[in-house]
Structures are given as structure tokens and as C-alpha cells.
Write a structure and sequence with these properties.
globular, mainly alpha, about 325 residues, two-stranded antiparallel sheet
């Protein structure tokens, strides 16, 4: 009677880990040996020209992986027959520099080894290289992902955490994807680079509560500076502020130190410090950058393997913003 249960467990294990087991850092070693050099040169050139590229690429990668897995579905443009993930309200502000660096890398790779490297793998590698280039940890990226065959706007809501959610709600979003609280706090440390639009936190400045218009969690001088910066945000939706006011272009642990000083830009940032489940990790990473880098690297390796498509479950797109064929 024990044999059927045993084989069922083995089959279940294989079905869960098979996609990840197909991934390998050497997946393109023979089919596209120039891959690493092309990605490195493309990312370096773009980052030098546009210093926000690293933060932009990291953000797009996160938005891609959190919705259905790391399959480049967020890169797809909507067409006459369907609205893609990219058009979801939370994705409308995704920076153009990230999409541009992927297009540049894909173009170069199609010239060197046409039809071989997936857009999902390009995004994963470009993200790792960009993070490393601005001072972050260099981690292993397993390769062999295929690009998604579907990108639907309706799948975004319910998967992405939002800055005005409670920390317990955000924890549940990550837990649904098998990430621990510590892994979540490490991943959110990506806010050490990049920026957020004023509209995402303006309520904390002007209409937090009827009796307290400005969130008292902000350092008073920081709140004053943000009010000045975002004064006309309702007329200019592109107005933004750096997530890390101290070292905005350097990947370090300053983000966590800022939280202790009342310099958390988003309400979800401040909630990391307040919530008893997340606070210990904020304190740890604030005093120990090595611990943050090690945990961030491990969490990124795990994230980059989440929900990947392999074999016939995906394709290698000719263009990263369009499926090879459109089903009407």
C-alpha cells in the first residue's frame, strides 16, 4: 500500500522542480558563447548614458517575475486583440530605460546568434549585471527560460504588492510565492536605488489624516523637502523622488538606515520598520551590509527561478515586445 503514495510523492516533486532543473548557468555555452559579453557591454553602455537604467531594469524584472513567473510577459505590448500586463495601472510607470536596454541586447544577440536567447533570460542577466554595476552583489543566474505565450492585463492585480498595503498584506503576497519574510525584506532592499512618483506617496504629505495632514513618521525636514519637490505633482504626474535620499545611485544598505531616520519614502517602507515580523531584518541589514548583500543575492537567485517556462510551455521570441504569432 505504501508504493502508490511513494511514487505519487516522487512524481509531485519532479513536477515542481523539473522546470528549474532544466536551467543552467552554462545553457548557452555552445549555442551562444558571446552572450555574457554582449549583455555586459550593452548594460554598461546604457548605464553610463542613462544612470537610472539599473534601478529601472531591476524594477521591471521584479514586476515580470511576480506575475506568473520570470517569463518576459511584462515586455509584451498590447495589440488589437488583447491588453497586456504592461498596460496595468501599476505597470504604466515602468521606466522606458529598462525596455530599451532589453531591446538593445536582443538586437545584438539576434545578429550574433539568431533565435537562440530568450527575452526572459536577457532580462534576468541584464538585471544581475546592472545591480552589480552600481555596487550590488554579483549572483548566479541560471539560464534556459522560455518566453511566455500569454500576457494578460487581468493577471497583474492580486499579484503585485502596492505601497499603500499593510505590511501583513504584503507579506501574504510574497508568502503566496513561497518567499519568507526575511527574503521579502531583502528583496525590498532594492529600493536602495531608483525613484517613486509623487502620486504614490503624496497622501502622506498632504492628506494623511484629518487632524494630521502629514504623516508624523516622516522626519520633519524630509517632509518639508518632499512637499517642495512634489508641490505640483497633480499637474505633472512624472514628478518623482529618490527612494534613497542619501545614496540614490549606489546599491548599498543605506535604505535600511534611512528607515531608522524617518526617511522612508513610501508607507510600505515605513511599515517595514514598524511591523514586528520585519523590523528585526531591517535592523540587521541596517548595521550589516554584507548580510544584506548575501541575503539579497540568494533571494534574487530564488526569484529568478520562480515560475519559469521551459520546453513547449514557451518560445524564444524574435522581438521581446511581441509574440512570434498572434492568436485572434
Amino acid at each position: 500500500m505504501a508504493f502508490p503514495s511513494f511514487f505519487f510523492l516522487i512524481s509531485l516533486f519532479l513536477s515542481i522542480s523539473f522546470s528549474e532543473s532544466k536551467l543552467s548557468p552554462d545553457y548557452y555555452k555552445k549555442s551562444c558563447p558571446q552572450l555574457e559579453d554582449i549583455i555586459r557591454e550593452t548594460v554598461t553602455s546604457k548605464q553610463i548614458t542613462n544612470p537610472t537604467t539599473a534601478a529601472a531594469t531591476l524594477r521591471v524584472f521584479f514586476h515580470d517575475c511576480m506575475v506568473g513567473g520570470c517569463d518576459a510577459s511584462v515586455l509584451i505590448s498590447s495589440n488589437a486583440f488583447s491588453k497586456a500586463e504592461r498596460d496595468a495601472d501599476i505597470n504604466l510607470s515602468l521606466p522606458g530605460d529598462a525596455f530599451d536596454v532589453i531591446v538593445r541586447a536582443k538586437t545584438a544577440l539576434e545578429l550574433s546568434c539568431p533565435g537562440i536567447v530568450s527575452c526572459a533570460d536577457i532580462l534576468a542577466l541584464a538585471t544581475r549585471n546592472a545591480v552589480s554595476m552600481v555596487g550590488g552583489p554579483f549572483y548566479t543566474v541560471k539560464l534556459g527560460r522560455k518566453d511566455s505565450l500569454v500576457s494578460n492585463i487581468s493577471t497583474v492585480e492580486g499579484n503585485m504588492p502596492r505601497p499603500n498595503m499593510t505590511m501583513d498584506e504584503i507579506i501574504r503576497r510574497f508568502a503566496a510565492k513561497k518567499f519568507t519574510v526575511q527574503e521579502m525584506v531583502a528583496l525590498i532592499g532594492a529600493h536602495t536605488i531608483g525613484f517613486s512618483h509623487c502620486k504614490e506617496f503624496a497622501y502622506r504629505l498632504y492628506s494623511y489624516k484629518k487632524s494630521t495632514p502629514t504623516d508624523p513618521s516622516y522626519h520633519p525636514k524630509y517632509a518639508t523637502a518632499l512637499k517642495k519637490l512634489c508641490k505640483n505633482y497633480d499637474k505633472n504626474p512624472e514628478m518623482s523622488a529618490f527612494n534613497d535620499a542619501m545614496t540614490p545611485s549606489k546599491f548599498d544598505n543605506m535604505y535600511y538606515k534611512n528607515l531608522l531616520r524617518g526617511l522612508g519614502l513610501l508607507e510600505s517602507d515605513n511599515a517595514l520598520l514598524k511591523n514586528p515580523k520585519t523590523r528585526p531584518f531591517v535592523l540587521l541589514y541596517g548595521r550589516n551590509q554584507t548580510a544584506f548583500f548575501n541575503d539579497f543575492a540568494r533571494a534574487m537567485e530564488k526569484l529568478s527561478s520562480y515560475g519559469v517556462k521551459t520546453g513547449r510551455k514557451g518560445e524564444v521570441r524574435r522581438r521581446c515586445d511581441a509574440f512570434n504569432s498572434i492568436e485572434t
